Predict the 3D structure of the following.
Amino acid sequence: MKTVLELRNVTKEFPGVRALDSVNLHVGRNEVVGLIGENGAGKSTLVKILAGIHRINEGEMLFEGKPTSFRSPRDAFNHGLAMVFQEQSIIQTLTVAENIFLGREQEFLRFGIIDKRSMNSAAKVELAKVHLNCEPSEKCSKLDFAARQMVEIAKALSLDGRLDSDIVILLDEPTSVLERREINLLFEIIGELKAKASIIFISHRLDEVLEVSDRIYVLRDGAVVHETASADASITGLHEHMVGRQLDHEYYRENKQRSSFGDPVLSVRDLTIDGELRNLSVDLAAGEILGLAGVVGSGREAFARCLGGLMLPSSGEILIDGKPVKLNQPNQAVDSGFGFVPSERKSEGIVSGLSVAENMTLAAGKRFSRFGFIRFDRERTECQHWIKRLQIRTPSVKTPMQSLSGGNQQKVVLSKWQIVGSKVAVLDHPTRGIDVGAKEDVYELIREMADQGIAIVLLGDTLEEVIGLSNRILVLRDGEVSAQFDAPAGAKPDQLDLISNMV
Amino acid sequence: MTEKHKQFIRNLVPIFTLLILVFGIAAYEPGFLRPRNLMTVTADTMTLFLMASGATLVIMLGSIDLSIQAIASMTSCIVAAMLPMFGGTALLFALAAGAAAGILSGLVVNYLRIPSFVATLAIGGIMTSVAFWASNERSIYISDEDKLVWLNWATGTTAGIDHEVVVGLAVLAVLSVILSLTRFGRLVRAVGSQERAVVASGINVNGVKFFAFVISGFMAGLAGLVMAARLGSGSPTLASEFLLPAIACIIVGGTAITGGVGSIWKTFVGALIIAVVRIGMTFVGVTVFAQQIVFGLVLVLAVAMTIDRTKVSVVK
């Protein structure tokens, strides 16, 4: 089989993190290659290197045997590497045809003007390849999400017949928002595509990867840890390679898991967020860790943001210590005793231009000021205490936040809510994008917070993390609670049981 | 060289620029360095600095205030028109009018969720109309007697020091204290650096923005008073040509247009740079009308040098 795309010893480093560590990977002509790995394993870095968004530090990329480096996604596209991203690149105000041929309008120019009719009929041909029955002249904003995804794929397929070179189509989590029927259609299309192109299929759904791929690579901590033909692989085997260990009790500090809790702190009654969440009711006691499991769009992110005051509930009631509270704005949430650790640390968690101390006391301003003037002494003492206690690696309290590593930044964010004295910590992917050692520190910290009597709502980065840390797990599906599991130390529920309630 | 050293040097660039410009002019005209002359140049610069001082806070938020020149013109008209009848109360009224314009901008930005450049452009237009109305569409002269009694604090000289400079330094001190020692000042930097994270921390970001606009309006109003005092008149177009140099001196001083980084002394230095450039151009023979070309170029250059590119992925 002729190799179309190859990576040789590719290494990519970001400040403080080695995102890819001498990765070797090749894709043959007419082959479907699956790529799996946990969040943070390096999948998205790999995709961005292929797309020309990131540059390689070491190693090389070969396309059709020639060393290549794409300058931009457009450059990659013009060379025959098309991406279908998780976050769609479809422009909603343009028509279907305009989106498919965006940037390649020359083909349809007549005296400098785009010939809409010939563009639309060319688009019709591409739409037929994905079995999408819509008018090319329709605005993309009129299509539903799945249909837009198909347009995106049609755009990638339009390279076929227009380039002399081979075509590689990269599908990054294409199924996460599709219904089963649409997924089947997509797999059918991939089957047809194989005759014309090579395909890289990225997903965290192992069953799908197994079903559609010829060969599978497993990424972990930035390295390829396993390569196998799909025919020889099993879901459990792949999962073990992906996680790198049997479920490890030490890792999640299960021995420190509490078995008895304090007084009830948080009560949620019939909470509904239109289009996101329906009738969620749950109670949480001091020191208890409640894990939320569910796929993207299950409503768990919406629930977390609602508790942070960043998303308005439509109906229902939230009570703290038995008293109803309003969470229409983040300051109400903070005043009521919630501390929200957002999943996007860089844009919502930290203020990169402020110092470590300034970030730590950001939410507790009143305690560290008198008549509006900051009490620098008191602030410094308190921050030094927390830096020591949480072992935050920083030269001083005045160090700019942006020069800390991701793990240390996250510890600062967690300390921010401890300094405020939050009663309920809402942790939305608290270990996202931080390296393994720092993750363990964060787990330790979560256990400590529980010991202090803080009630914790946890949205884990992985299912395993949710199971390992939680006392109790709510599984959400399509905005409703589909199951509830107790997860005491030593008797943790099985992943597969959770998954069967998630999808 | 560490990031810290680079930052330190970047901070010093405006000061070195100023020194080079000053000595450059002195090479042409040695008399330029005479203390009396330097005092006059500094005093001449203070109206520009006052206008830019409050707006610096707004720019540090990542917003902009395009109404300052209109506010300054308006307060010059108000004070000139009211002095004969109300005496000193006219000063308070003018300052209150400046602050009120800032309040309006703050409300429009916060509650109508309109970008600050549109909001302040519109408020500036309204203030210009107020100025025309207050002045009956012409310049109003301030009598020498009123000037001596009520405006000597702005234009007089004590022990060889021009009062403009005293006012400028006082504003420099007060705003610097606000920015570096108060919670409000810290939040201004925080909002400019990463607004979403500040919101998620439960901070009332609207309040921070509101006060920044009020301070900007108030300072522009004060600038209008000092201008009226110096010129002995108020006019609805008194400060019309000041917007571009005012924004330019904030940016030239090293405050980033993208927000989060900046300080008042930087604007002070920036204002002096602009003033010295202006004088230099006059020496070289660039007409007043062509000077705006230079300010335009300086502004573009300074923004290009200070902008935080990581924050600006799309330019609109």
